[in-house]
Amino acid sequence: MGEIGFPNQTFLGSVRIWLFLLLSRSVGITNGFLLFLFKPVIIIFIIIIGRVFYFLSVFFGVCWLSNGVLERNYLFV
Fold first, then answer.
1. Is the same domain home to 29 and 43?
2. pLDDT in tens, 9-22
3. End-to-end CA distance of the chain
């Protein structure tokens, strides 16, 4: 189980297992196991990609909401 202060440890574990299975299916079991040994690099890579996607989704969501509000204001004026 996850330790106190690390609530998403199980989530990272499941992501690691899923990545290991994906890599072992696509690359071959030996290469997948070698990549699984470098799991901190993979986890940092996943976190960076996740934050970039999160930032982009928030940015485009704010732009979409502001555009919708502006269009509604123009329609009602």
1. no
2. 566 666 777 776 66
3. 57
